[in-house]
Amino acid sequence: MFSEALNITTKFTLPVIFTRRLRKGQLTASLGSFVVVNDEGWFVTADHIVADLLRFGESQDEIQKYEAAKQRIEADPTVKDKDKRRMIQRLNVSDEWIMNQAVFWGHDGWSVDQFFRDPLADVAIGRIKGFDASTISQYPVFKNPAVDFKTGTSLCRLGFPFHEIKSTFDVGTGLFSLDPATFPVPLFPNDGILTRFFIKDASDHSRQVRFVETSSAGLRGQSGGPIFDRDAKIYAIQSQTISLPLGFTPTIKLGNKEIVEHQFMHLGWGSHIANVISLLTANGVPFAMD
């Protein structure tokens, strides 16, 4: 059903990988998706991916504050060494501080240093530095939001779940290295139908944004990827998965214990393409729409 559409969408759906070294040396890696919009290197992704990436800058600010406070204490000649150690121990510090971070945007040499965001709609756009248009043979076409989106329409979601990212970090050079098994990053589609629409209000009620719900759940690694129909027209950008209680709780035996299992249905939410078009238009970014 979606084989032809996948031939198209796989050409402009790419992985974003970010690797990190935390304060105590732990290495972590995360994987998401983004959609290249045009031959100028503009792309769209989920805003929560961008928010996560920007945590690095927040961590660096906190680290600088900590180091400055520590240096002031150590340089104070009126304080005894024992008291200095006690004062330093009381300073705010977190093992979750990100000491180093590297981001891979689809291809070696590509980077992004500025984003335009809509956190309420969970979409963000940016422009790739070093973009080579020859690497993308086809660009997306957005579903016209002025045309009715019909409940029951078959939709497919695309991204990069079920893939483990391993990396190493060289303290001397300050560089990360991804395990060779990282590439190629395998794409994974899952389909469902358009079930409902949801409206989300700003906290001050100044605006509203729409989300498309699908009968299939979004998977980790698909955030920021496209939700599209059989003609490869993009209806939404994957945002989140919600779990709705089914209202029955069967009891099962586990060894000598009886456990009540709460049953849920997992559904996907995608940021409506109208949100994406609004953000692109506000920033003068060209795109294709049917």
Describe the protein's architecture and organization.
Helix 3 (55-75) packs antiparallel against helix 4. Strands 4-1-2-3-6-5 form a 6-stranded antiparallel sheet, with helices on both faces. A 6-stranded antiparallel barrel has the order 8-11-12-17-14-13. Strands 9-10 form a two-stranded antiparallel sheet. The two termini are 20 Å apart. It contains 5 helices and 18 strands. It has 290 residues and is an alpha+beta fold. The mean pLDDT is 96. The chain has one domain: Thrombin, subunit H. A hairpin with a 4-residue loop joins strand 9 and strand 10 (175-178).
Query: Quick one: biggest sheet?
Result: 6 strands, antiparallel
Number of domains: 1
Helix content: 10-25%
Task: Give the CATH topology.
Answer: Thrombin, subunit H
> What is the averaged pLDDT score?
96
Written as H for each helix and E for each strand, in order along the chain, the element string is HEEEHHHEEEEEEEEEEEEEEHE
The dominant shape is globular
What's the architecture in CATH terms?
A: Beta Barrel
- Helix-and-strand structural type: alpha+beta
Task: Tell me the fraction of residues in β-strands, as a range.
Answer: 35-45%
- Report how far apart the termini are: 20 Å
Strand order in the sheet with the most strands: 4-1-2-3-6-5
Gyration radius (Cα, Å) is: 23 Å
The CATH class: Mainly Beta
Number of strands: 18
Number of helices, where a helix is a run of at least 4 consecutive DSSP H or I residues:
5
Weakly predicted, low-confidence segments: none
